[in-house]
UniProtKB/TrEMBL annotation:
<dbReference type="InterPro" id="IPR036117">
    <property type="entry name" value="DhaL_dom_sf"/>
</dbReference>
<dbReference type="GO" id="GO:0019563">
    <property type="term" value="P:glycerol catabolic process"/>
</dbReference>
<protein>
    <submittedName>
        <fullName>PEP-dependent dihydroxyacetone kinase, ADP-binding subunit DhaL</fullName>
        <ecNumber>2.7.1.121</ecNumber>
    </submittedName>
</protein>
<dbReference type="GO" id="GO:0004371">
    <property type="term" value="F:glycerone kinase activity"/>
</dbReference>
<dbReference type="InterPro" id="IPR012737">
    <property type="entry name" value="DhaK_L_YcgS"/>
</dbReference>
<dbReference type="GO" id="GO:0005829">
    <property type="term" value="C:cytosol"/>
</dbReference>
<feature type="domain" description="DhaL">
    <location>
        <begin position="5"/>
        <end position="195"/>
    </location>
</feature>
<dbReference type="Pfam" id="PF02734">
    <property type="entry name" value="Dak2"/>
</dbReference>
<dbReference type="InterPro" id="IPR004007">
    <property type="entry name" value="DhaL_dom"/>
</dbReference>
<dbReference type="GO" id="GO:0047324">
    <property type="term" value="F:phosphoenolpyruvate-glycerone phosphotransferase activity"/>
</dbReference>
<keyword id="KW-0418">Kinase</keyword>
<dbReference type="InterPro" id="IPR050861">
    <property type="entry name" value="Dihydroxyacetone_Kinase"/>
</dbReference>
<keyword id="KW-0808">Transferase</keyword>
Length: 199
């Protein structure tokens, strides 16, 4: 079973990973966007880490809802509301239990990913964060390590895709040949989850 501390450790590990990789995320966004993805993610996850450290909630659901709210309110770019929605919807799906099973985690993240799809209107293949998140959630039934591998593969597989959503879609065919920044940050978030799960 996974408690609130597990989810706090996930998000703190994610914040540390985002901090380390922020320049690379911004570099990817400079090729097919507006060169701010690392800046947006760093600001958002620093706010998440600060909020969790100053007042850690006592249920898994409340941890994710708090983190989601921070991302929505602190990040101006498209990724803030999208990642915020992912975490908030997943947190709501976990309800008020003090401990949740890995099966409940999988179902909650699936609900979060579905909410991202509804908010942004993207589907897998559109060269967005969903190209990493969707296969990761699908693989989660086989464990956290399988989810990490699926997210990494999904992010890499965005290179030949043409962007159909978000800023990169303005480039049309010129978006082909570049790795999607959001799919790359999604793979970092899934890798952080696998890390704290010991996978
Ligand atoms: P912005 O594009 O507003 O500058 P960011 O650079 O922080 O925001 O985030 C860009 C990333 O957001 C993209 O690489 C893509 O993965 C993701 N994204 C953009 N639009 C959508 C959408 N409609 N659905 C899902 N993900 C999206
Ligand atoms: Mg951007
Ligand atoms: Mg921007």
């Amino acid at each position: 079973m996974r408690d609130a501390d597990f989810f706090c450790r996930w998000l703190l590990a994610a914040a540390a990973s985002i901090e380390r990789e922020a320049d690379r995320l911004t570099e990817l966004d400079s090729a097919i966007g507006d060169a701010d993805h690392g800046v947006n993610m760093r600001r958002g996850f620093a706010a998440v880490a600060e909020a969790l450290r100053s007042g850690p909630p006592d249920t898994p659901g409340a941890v994710l809802v708090l983190a989601g709210r921070q991302l929505i309110s602190r990040v101006g770019g498209a990724s803030g509301p999208l990642y915020g929605t992912l975490l908030r919807a997943a947190g709501k799906a976990l309800g008020e239990a003090a401990e949740v099973s890995d099966e409940a985690v999988r179902e909650a993240l699936a609900a979060g990913v579905a909410a991202v799809g509804r908010l942004g209107g993207a589907v897998p293949g559109d060269k967005t964060m969903l190209d990493a998140l969707t296969p990761a959630v699908a693989a989660l039934g086989e464990g956290y390590g399988a989810a990490r591998a699926a997210a990494q593969e999904g992010a890499l597989a965005t290179v030949p895709l043409r962007a159909r959503k978000g800023r990169a879609s303005y480039l049309g065919a010129r978006s082909v040949g570049h790795r999607d920044p959001g799919a790359t940050s999604s793979a970092l978030l899934v890798a952080a989850l696998a890390e704290v799960a010991g996978a």
